[in-house]
């Protein structure tokens, strides 16, 4: 069992001033796998001071220097890729397949920042003026547990690309993953204070960052509830915010779609990251004339979904991250039944033989209406709600009748038709006939899925502020 008893401030692993101990529990069997000593307000203040000092010189570095730093970070993370995947499977319970992809995304955070930086112009002539895009200053990076190192890498990469410095507060549940990543980052020997990491609670370390007058921006990924709280608090010091929040993504299967392809893809979209994904396609919209066929295909597909040991390469669904998350998903399954939805697959309780961990049965509800809470609220577990529609217009209306707007999916045998539908959906990304990721294209949400965009040029622009020079 490992105890993480350091945080990272000003280029060094140091003992935190905070003394609170947080247990790290395996999601797979609920055994104790580690402990982390949490940082506190004092630790956060020291980290911000280090980042502020480092900003004086780091903000003056050239693009070429920053590209070299990003390349170093890429190299050191790449070297320990396998260990990073392993610790993610162990601590988070993500499947081997998902964790492998997640660490690849972490790496692509660095390569895409390099790509963007190569052609990004930090100075422009606008009208008769010179406009300089200046790095913001100290950035507070706050991340969730569901792809911890991926978010840390992509956010830090953009912070570095801009010439800003950072204080990172990862989820306290990800301490083993953070520690290994930190060992990699330390190897890269960046200037002291360019990044600092303080393990700690959201309402302590996170809140100190959000309220700190020397922090210029908060880049947050997490729940909509905490995102709203951060936005309100950040207004006090006029911080810039990028908020990547929750989702309840619609997946429209148009009546001309090839169901043999679309339904397995829909199950993958709903159950990705064991259902603990902000972009999960959890509302499946099906033409009423196709529902019988869809039900059959859903049964066939979901029966094949293997739940179990996340380290096994054939596992599709791992456990929920902790017992609290397990209970939350169970409550929603119960609620779906009480609301009158028809349980097609899965249901309450744990799959047989997996009682020790936080495993959930892959669950599908049909006869769901879009006003039910299981169709409106983010469940964050492997629960798919199937809703029928009569016309294309109604499908679009249902898709958009949500507080969220992060991602959406459309399937059709006519790509032009799918694109026409996609253009009417209020979401940051719409995926047509497949599951894709583009690390250079903007990512982020409409409505209560967030504010701002990450990735690519749009992502970098969120870390700079225009300054006009008139002579
Ligand atoms: P969460 O909001 O509970 O926590 C996220 C982070 O915020 C954690 O580090 C937490 O410690 C911190 N935090 C909590 N209270 C805080 C406060 N008062 N001030 C500052 N920081 C605080 O989210 P979670 O449970 O870790 O993650 C799951 C949520 O994240 C889901 O809602 C999911 O949709 C969302 N998410 C969104 C995206 C996206 O890109 N849009 C990606 C992944 C996850």
Written account of the structure:
Helix content is 40%, strand content 21%. The chain has 471 residues and is of the alpha/beta class. The chain has two domains: 2-245 and 447-469, Aldehyde Dehydrogenase, Chain A, domain 1 (3-Layer(aba) Sandwich), CATH 3.40.605; 250-432, 3-Layer(aba) Sandwich (Aldehyde Dehydrogenase, Chain A, domain 2). The strands form five sheets. It has a seven-stranded mixed sheet with strand order 15-16-17-14-13-18-19, with helices on both faces. The model has no long low-confidence stretch (mean pLDDT 98). Bound molecules: nicotinamide-adenine-dinucleotide. Nicotinamide-adenine-dinucleotide (NAD) is lined by residues 142-146, 169, 171, 202-203, 206-207, 210, 221-223, 226, 229-230, 244-247, 278, 378, 380, 406, 445, 450.
Keywords:
471 residues; alpha/beta; Aldehyde Dehydrogenase, Chain A, domain 1; Aldehyde Dehydrogenase, Chain A, domain 2; 2 domains; 7-stranded mixed beta sheet; 6-stranded mixed beta sheet; 15 helices; 21% strand; binds nicotinamide-adenine-dinucleotide
Task: Tally the beta strands.
Answer: 21
| Biggest sheet architecture | 7 strands, mixed
Strand order of the largest sheet: 15-16-17-14-13-18-19
Tally of individual domains: 2
**Mean pLDDT across all amino acids:** 98
Structural class, by secondary structure, is alpha/beta
Task: Supply the CATH architecture of the largest domain.
Answer: 3-Layer(aba) Sandwich
- The percent range for helix content is 40-55%
Q: Any idea what the CATH superfamily of the largest domain is called?
A: Aldehyde Dehydrogenase, Chain A, domain 1
Shape: globular
Cα-to-Cα separation, first versus last residue: 63 Å
CATH class designation of the largest domain: Alpha Beta
CATH topology of the largest domain: Aldehyde Dehydrogenase, Chain A, domain 1
| Cα radius of gyration in angstroms | 22 Å
Number of helices, counting only DSSP H or I runs of 4 residues or more = 15
Which small-molecule species are bound to the chains here? nicotinamide-adenine-dinucleotide
DSSP strand content: 15-25%
Low-confidence stretches: none
